[in-house]
Design goal:
The protein has 456 residues and is an all-alpha fold. α5 packs across α18, α7 (112-152) packs antiparallel against α8 (158-174) and α8 packs across α16 (316-348). Helix content is 77%, strand content 0%. It contains 20 helices and no strands. The chain has a single domain (52-451), classed as Up-down Bundle (Amino acid/polyamine transporter I), CATH 1.20.1740.10. It has helices spanning 2-7, 13-37, 41-51, 54-62, 65-78, 83-108, 112-152, 158-174, 178-190, 195-202, 206-213, 227-238, 243-256, 263-291, 303-314, 316-348, 363-379, 387-413, 416-419, 426-451.
Length: 456
């Protein structure tokens, strides 16, 4: 037997790469198994901590630099009004959409891009991949804008802030294995909550905030069918649910090695992330509504204008924390969006597709995603970019791309051969179709108002 093993031909390189990733994943699963087997209070706490990750990362990563600026622009445009309570149903929508990716990843153990290619063929696979990568590069531009502007408040040159960010994103993606990558990313994501102490230090009129939730200020200047309102509505939807989130969380679930028995814990993980996302969004909207409302051309404010106006309104400490939060938001989003591109490209072209893969063995997995990230970073160093307009446009584009991504997700979740007992229930289908219709109607109304401003 030893002689046969000695003379056996070496495994192909891609099989060795896959085996290396599987070994890391198996080790992580054994750790979870041991914790689940022990029944002590400490083991239950450690098990809960071991299973968190994808849901928190996808939702706090969703509060990216572009999202932070979008919320601030929205508050500046409409004050403490309808957009504050709107964050709660948007959080529910995000949970409904992302919960489906949990089940899809845990049951099939395949990423989103891989399933689209296998079930619907290369044409739709290429379509969905182009949709994702184009949106990711555009979104990454807003992340580097946020990082650049946030660090410029502390005197860091733009080129240096972009370079340092690129080096950090490259390091955590390429040179760490999944478990370490996830833990470091979670530590970065936690600092997304810095906007909560900022709004507390700012001392807004909490009575006005409460009245906004009670419906006292839901009237919209210019009407609900104005171009400004529809653009900001689309941008807020786009910063809550975006195509990269579907690809990211499903691939994250697969790379983490989660199984159907982990679905309840993954739902709790997602709920924690959604709750954090909603709280942070409301905090930033409150800052914008209380202290930036009334500024001219509010929907096109740049991050630099927002920070400097906050210095005047809430003081240097609050503005510094806001700037740091902007840097963190851009950084965590750059990490997760780059990972989503790497996973999707790897799945589509049957490359090694795990963060557990060693860089020398899986350069084709890491390189294309990093190229897109570097391209986005280089673009934001161009002079005289219309930063505020660019930011809102990117969020709106995410809303435009989302219906196609949702349609693929719905079809996969209703594939009984694929999902078995975890197929979508009629109630989940109804909720998902309602979200899909909402996205299409919002896109259509914004398109009509933009092309025919006197239509309404």
């Amino acid at each position: 037997m030893n002689t046969v093993a000695h003379h056996a031909p070496p495994l192909p390189k891609d099989v060795n790469d896959e085996a290396s990733g599987l070994r890391h994943r198996l080790r992580d699963r054994l750790h979870v198994y041991e914790l689940r087997r022990k029944k002590t209070l400490l083991s239950r706490v450690l098990l809960a901590l071991a299973l968190v990750g994808p849901g928190i990362l996808v939702m706090l990563g969703d509060n990216d630099a572009g999202g932070v600026l979008t919320y601030a622009q929205t508050g500046a445009a409409y004050g403490l009004g309808i957009f504050l309570p709107l964050m709660i149903p948007l959080g529910v929508i995000a949970y409904v959409v992302q919960e489906m990716t949990i089940r899809l990843g845990a049951v099939t153990r395949r990423g989103h891009a891989e399933l689209i290619w296998r079930r619907y063929g290369p044409f739709w696979g290429i379509f969905s991949l182009f949709d994702l990568v184009a949106a990711n590069v555009l979104t990454l531009m807003t992340e580097f804008i946020g990082i650049r502007v946030g660090l410029s408040f502390f005197g860091v040159p733009g080129w240096l802030s972009v370079l340092l960010s690129l080096l950090f994103v490259t390091y955590v993606l390429v040179f760490l294995r999944y478990w370490s990558w996830e833990r470091i990313s979670l530590w970065v994501a936690v600092f997304n909550l810095v906007f909560v102490p900022v709004v507390i230090l700012a001392h807004p009129d909490w009575g006005a905030v409460a009245r906004a939730f009670a419906g006292a200020h839901w009237m919209v200047s210019g009407g609900f069918l104005s171009a400004t309102f529809l653009m900001l509505l689309s941008a807020n939807i786009g910063t809550t649910i975006a195509p990269w989130q579907l690809f990211f969380q499903q691939s994250c679930v697969v790379d983490k090695g989660l199984l159907p028995e982990d679905i309840p814990a993954s739902r709790r993980d997602l709920m924690i992330g959604v709750t954090g996302m909603v709280i942070v969004a409301i905090a930033i909207l409150t800052l914008g509504g209380a202290f930036l409302h009334g500024l001219p051309d509010a929907q096109n404010l740049s991050a630099l204008v927002v920070i400097h106006d906050l210095v005047r309104r809430i003081g240097t400490l609050g503005a510094k924390l806001f700037a740091l939060g902007l840097v963190e938001a851009g950084l965590i989003a750059s990490i997760v969006i780059t990972a989503s591109s790497a996973w999707a490209i790897g799945e589509a072209f049957e490359l090694p597709r795990s963060i557990n893969a060693r860089p020398r063995d899986a350069w084709a997995f890491y390189a294309p995603a990093l190229f897109g990230t570097v391209l986005a970073g280089a673009f934001v160093l161009l002079p005289k970019l219309p930063l505020g307009f660019l930011n809102l446009s990117v969020q709106v584009i995410a809303t435009v791309f989302m219906p196609a991504a949702m349609l693929f997700l719905l079809m996969l979740l209703n594939d009984r051969e694929l999902m078995g007992e975890y197929v979508n229930s009629p109630r989940r289908n109804a909720a998902s179709i309602a979200i899909l219709v909402l996205l299409i109607v919002c896109n259509a109304l914004y398109g009509v108002v933009t092309l025919f401003p006197k239509a309404f």
